[in-house]
Amino acid sequence: MPAKTPATIVTGFLGAGKTTLIRHLLANAGGRRIALIINEFGDLGVDGDILKGCGDETCTDEDVVELSNGCICCTVADDFIPALEKLLARPEPPDHILIETSGLALPQPLVRAFNWPGISTRVTVDGVVTVVDGKAVSEGRFAHDEAAVDAARAEDDNLDHETPLSELFDDQLACADLVVVNKADLLTEAETEALIARLKAGTRPSVQVLRSTMGALPCEVLLGHKAAAESDDRKAPHHDAEGEDHDHDEFESFIITRPEITDPSAFAARIADTIRSHDILRLKGFGSVAGKPMRLTIQAVGPRVETYFDRPLAASEPRETRLVVIGETGLDRAAIEAALSR
C-alpha cells in the first residue's frame, strides 16, 4: 500500500501569526512539494492572497486552495473533503499538505475528518501546530486564568466563567502536537518562561512549547511529527470535546472599502485607534498608496498594526483599500467605517 500523504493542521487564534509561519515554512521547504488549504473567517481572502503573493515556487496559485464558505470545522463534508480529494488526485500529488484553519475553528472535527472513507487510507495528520500570540495571551486578552475558573467552579457549581474565546483557545491547545509562542520578541525572558509554563499546563504530556519571532522555525521542527492524530482521542483539560456547540454567531465580520491611502503611517495609527475604541479582534486587508506601484498589506491584532508592500499592483486592480474587520457580535459598523474614513 502506498504511504499516506502527511498533512499538518496549523491552528491558533485570530492574528496569532499562522500565515506568517506558513510563509516562512514555504520559503524554507527544501524542495518539498507543499499544497495549502486555507480557511478564513470573512469574505476577503487575505491570507490566501498573501501566500499566493510570496513569489516562491512552492506556493503557486494552483497549490493554494481557499475555503471561504464557512468555518472549516463546520463544513467538513461540503468543502474540506472535496478539496483534499482534489489535491490527492493531481498527477503529481503534494509531498505534504498544510491546512490553515480560521482563528475560530475547533481543530477536533477537522482531525476526525481524516477517518472518513476514501481519505483514511490516503492521508494522515502528521501533526497539529497551534500558534499563540505570546504578547496577547500574556496580557490575558484571549484567555482566562484556568486555575481561577476551576477554583470558582469548586465553590459554586452554577458559576461558569468560560467564554467562547477561552473555549476555542483551550481546544486548540488540547489538540496540539506542537505549540508555538509567536511574537516572543515582544516579551521579556521572564514573561516568556511564565507563559510557556502556563501553556504546558493546558497541553497533553510530551507536547513541546517553543518560542518564535515572525514564525521563523525550521521546517524540520514543524513537519515530520508522524502523530497520526486522527487515531487519537484528544480532549481539552477542562471540558469534553465531544458534542461541543460551536456557535459562530458569537462573531461577525464585514468589509470596508475606501480610497487609496496618502500616508501609510497615519493610516496605521488610525487603525490602531479604531481597534482600541471598538474592541476589534482582527483587521486585515490590502491597500494602494498614492504614488506607489506596490500593494500594501495591512494586518492588525489588538492595537498592533503591521504594514508592508508585498507585490506590484496589477494594471487591472482598482487603486483602493479593502479591509476585513472581525470581532465579537455587536460591532458598530457605521462608527468603525466613519473612523477609518476620516
Descriptive account of the structure:
- The chain has 342 residues and is α/β, with parallel strands linked by helices.
- The chain folds into two domains: 5-231, 3-Layer(aba) Sandwich (Rossmann fold), CATH 3.40.50.300; 250-341, 2-Layer Sandwich (Hypothetical Protein Yjia, Chain: A,domain 2).
- The chain has eleven helices and twelve strands.
Please give a handful of descriptors for the protein shown.
single chain, about 350 residues, Rossmann fold, Hypothetical Protein Yjia, Chain: A,domain 2, seven-stranded parallel sheet, five-stranded antiparallel sheet, 11 helices, globular
Helix proportion: 25-40%
Output the CATH homologous superfamily of the largest domain: P-loop containing nucleotide triphosphate hydrolases
- Major β-sheet, in short? 7 strands, parallel
The CATH architecture category of the largest domain equals 3-Layer(aba) Sandwich
Describe this structure in a few short sentences.
The protein is α/β, with parallel strands linked by helices.
Topology summary:
Blueprint: E1 5-12, H1 18-27, E2 34-39, H2 46-52, E3 64-67, H3 76-88, E4 96-100, H4 107-112, E5 123-133, H5 134-138, H6 146-155, H7 164-174, E6 178-182, H8 189-200, E7 208-211, H9 219-222, E8 251-259, H10 264-278, E9 282-288, E10 294-301, E11 304-312, E12 320-328, H11 333-341
Parallel strand pairs: 1-4, 1-5, 2-3, 2-4, 5-6, 6-7
Antiparallel strand pairs: 8-12, 9-10, 9-12, 10-11
